[in-house]
Amino acid sequence: MERPQDTEDFHRAARSLLEASARVGSNPLYVQGAGGNTSLKMGDVLRVKASGTRLADALVSDVFVDVSLSRVRQGVRDGAADPVAGAALGAGGLRPSIETTLHALMPHPVVFHVHCVNTLAWAVQPAAAAALVARLDGLAWAMVPYCKPGLDLTRAVAAAVAERPADAPADVVILANHGLIVGGADCAAVEALLDEVAGRLRVAPRPAGNPDRARLEEIAAGSGYRPTRRDEAHGLALSPAAVRIAASGSLYPDHVVFLGPGVAVAEDRAALDRVVSASGALPFRPVVLVPGAGVLVPEGLGEAGEEMVAALAMVVARIPDGAGVSCLSAADEQALLNWDAEKYRQSLQTSQTLQPR
């Protein structure tokens, strides 16, 4: 019997998935670092991005894994602790995405899950659901409260999708404090829908001045910190509103996983020394905002971590000055930091994130 992945239709759809994934993954307004994932269903095959890989590399590296769609769905129905265990088709060292169950339960042949900056700027605000009604008018959409990524999120999204008519499922799902899911019949339709949603939710970023690099270097000298290399990331510290919002707490999971919980604020070297002392026993040293000057990061922070700092700056710059924000709780943060699935994803990025201390 011919397998779906051996058919010409599957090869054509799989190629479209690679091309669309590379485009979406190369857009920092949609995906940062190893975040985000895409998938394709055909027959009993679910082709989904592998954990810890980068969508931007889809055309040059092996970043996808095939799993049995029916087996994953049955595992979810049975309440299995890990519905993806044993579902992989074929050999290989890659592990399916943390969000594989989410992709499996979405009814669409193609699903993209991204950490869209413009979406996040809305999705961290307490009144987001009401505010988005007009902006998303005419689309089949739903909003889901924050849940831990993985199985908890899958069940919440499945419940939201089930509330709509079976012949008109939610093609757009806004994830509070997390991101955006879009689904459709093929990659072209899903990519177009993603662009439409991002366009409808677009917010002009708050203007930011230039960092005071001399002051940052002076404060950081010999501390184990350095100025961030991303110019746009310094905007986190260059307006009172940005400092207030960024210092409120952790806004979404990838910040916690790759940078540690929250950020710190230090006006001078004495305050920075207190931050270093207070974080001495922690696995992460926090990103530090120096109001009016810019952003300091631990010296061991690599490119993936730099991307996450820049992403936070892009999100914060799109949140209105007076807006409230909802942050992850301490329990939410600990659930992410102690989660084996996220430790695995982070281990694949070791050279690009904070080095263990």
Task: Give structural notes.
It is a single chain. It contains 14 helices and eleven strands. Helix 4 (117-123) packs across helix 12 and helix 10 packs antiparallel against helix 12. The chain has 357 residues and is of the alpha+beta class. The strands form two sheets. A seven-stranded mixed beta sheet has the order 3-2-1-4-7-6-5, with helices on both faces. Strands 8-11-10-9 form a four-stranded mixed beta sheet, covered by helices on one side. Helices cover 38% and strands 14% of the residues. The longest helix has 18 residues, at 8-25. The N and C termini lie far apart (53 Å). It has two domains: 4-200, L-fuculose-1-phosphate Aldolase, CATH 3.40.225.10; 213-352, no CATH class. InterPro entries: Aldolase_II/adducin_N, Aldolase_II/adducin_N_sf. This is Class II aldolase/adducin N-terminal domain-containing protein. It holds the Pfam family Aldolase_II.
